[in-house]
Q: What sequence folds into this?
């Protein structure tokens, strides 16, 4: 259906997979293939309403790793916080916290999977990121982890185009100007724009209109933080390859969230 709609020009940016795993609809190893197949159609994929009857730590880790393995899998949402909050009933124990709010083994397995995707590196030479908040001029915004620049794919100008990392060059689709209004402008009239306030929200270009979702704090530690959300500009999955998409994410101090500005 997604392929057919896109072929007919229907704008589809993302597909959500409601992922309720139980004895009648069990998780299996082709789940990652399903995510990859949707991503190959040119859409982002998000795992939504995730719960697993029995709360298997192994299955939770597998689901997280499946998402992390696909660059365009941009978010995971669990259906509820405590088992007692679940629509399935507390006795099914499907979530990451028990009815008293205590962390379960599933919580730890999810955390470990996420940490394994972006481990603390062994000691390396210190890189000092610099971001110059002074308005005026234009330059590149280079990711410390990847050494690649914030780029508008294919020099597109359409509102909603998600930005990415790409080999740095001097073309207009990598030239960003900071303004006194805390905007980061490209092409003169398009702003770096957050399409939401939650971790995983896409970062895109959009016609400048003065909203707080188009305002950014350029911090001395190299982070670029959305004024509206308080979240960091982040390379998805700590990716370093050309085409890695950019998103908002909770600030972690990782180099995939640190940037240098060149003039």
A:
């Amino acid at each position: 259906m997604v392929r057919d709609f896109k072929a007919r020009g229907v704008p589809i940016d993302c597909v959500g997979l409601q992922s309720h795993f139980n004895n009648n609809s069990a998780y299996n190893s082709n789940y990652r293939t399903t995510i990859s197949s949707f991503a190959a159609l040119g859409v982002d994929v998000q795992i939504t309403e995730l719960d697993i009857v029995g709360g298997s730590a192994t299955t939770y880790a597998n689901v997280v790793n499946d998402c992390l393995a696909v660059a365009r899998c941009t978010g995971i949402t669990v259906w509820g916080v405590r088992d007692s909050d679940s629509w399935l009933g507390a006795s099914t124990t499907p979530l990451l916290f028990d009815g008293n709010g205590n962390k379960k083994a599933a919580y730890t397995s999810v955390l470990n999977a996420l940490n394994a995707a972006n481990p603390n590196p062994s000691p390396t030479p210190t890189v000092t990121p610099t971001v110059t908040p002074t308005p005026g001029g234009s330059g590149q915004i280079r990711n410390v982890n990847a050494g690649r620049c914030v780029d508008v794919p294919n020099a597109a100008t359409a509102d909603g185009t998600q930005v990415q990392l790409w080999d740095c060059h001097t073309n207009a689709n990598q030239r960003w100007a900071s303004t006194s209004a805390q905007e980061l402008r490209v092409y003169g009239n398009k702003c770096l724009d957050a399409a939401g306030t939650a971790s995983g929200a896409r970062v895109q270009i959009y016609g400048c209109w003065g909203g707080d979702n188009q305002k950014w704090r350029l911090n001395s530690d190299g982070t670029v933080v959305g004024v509206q959300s308080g979240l960091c500009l982040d390379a998805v999955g700590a990716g370093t390859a050309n085409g890695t998409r950019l998103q908002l994410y909770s600030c972690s101090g990782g180099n995939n969230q640190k940037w240098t500005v060149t003039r």
User: Anything to note?
Assistant: Residues 104 and 190 are 45 Å apart (CA to CA).
